[in-house]
Automatic annotation (TrEMBL):
Source organism (scientific name): Eruca vesicaria subsp. sativa (Garden rocket)
InterPro entries, per the entry: Znf_GRF
Listed GO MF terms: zinc ion binding
Lineage top rank: taxon: Eukaryota
Keywords: Metal-binding, Zinc, Zinc-finger
Domain GRF-type: 23-66
Name of the molecule in the record: GRF-type domain-containing protein
Length: 160
């Protein structure tokens, strides 16, 4: 179907950005082809009521303008996503750095605690070894004393 509508009738009522889906009157839009001398073969969106009653103000939009609008919308969304992704990347990197610092700090604390525990265990082991050696030396001396006394008693008994 063809129409002689032009963009001058677009009116000052409203501007629709992107690809329109309904007319301002609520009717679905159809695609039409212009048969004017100024825009021969150029396609546009318009509702059927607007083509029947040309005195009323209804939505009119050239298809290539709608597509350019859509491209701008998609490009703006892409840029928003890119900015969001970059912000997410920066935020995630900051969180990872913070966690890495915490882990490294905790690792250092654990190493210090392990060193203190090792030192404490080594000192306790040394002290226990010294105590055990002292007690063993005392028992050996006692055993030697008992052995000497026993040997002397035996000799005294044999010699008598």
């Amino acid at each position: 179907m063809s129409s002689s509508s032009s963009s001058s009738r677009q009116g000052a009522r409203r501007h629709v950005y992107g690809i329109p889906t309904k007319c301002w009157c609520g009717q679905p839009l159809d695609t039409w082809v212009s048969d004017t001398k100024e825009n021969p073969g150029r396609r546009f969106y318009r509702c059927r009521i607007a083509l029947q009653n040309k005195t009323e103000s209804h939505l009119f939009k050239w298809i290539e303008e709608a597509l350019h609008d859509e491209i701008r919308i998609v490009d703006a969304k892409r840029m928003d996503l890119l900015r969001d992704f970059q912000a997410f990347t920066i935020n995630t990197q900051a969180q990872l750095d913070s966690q890495r610092n915490w882990i490294e700090s905790r690792d250092e604390q654990l190493k210090k605690e392990m060193l203190q525990m090792t030192t404490t265990i080594d000192e306790a082991t040394k002290k226990m070894t010294e105590q055990f050696d002292a007690e063993l030396a005392t028992r050996i001396k006692t055993a030697a004393f008992v052995a000497i006394c026993g040997a002397m008693s035996y000799l005294f008994w044999k010699l008598r």
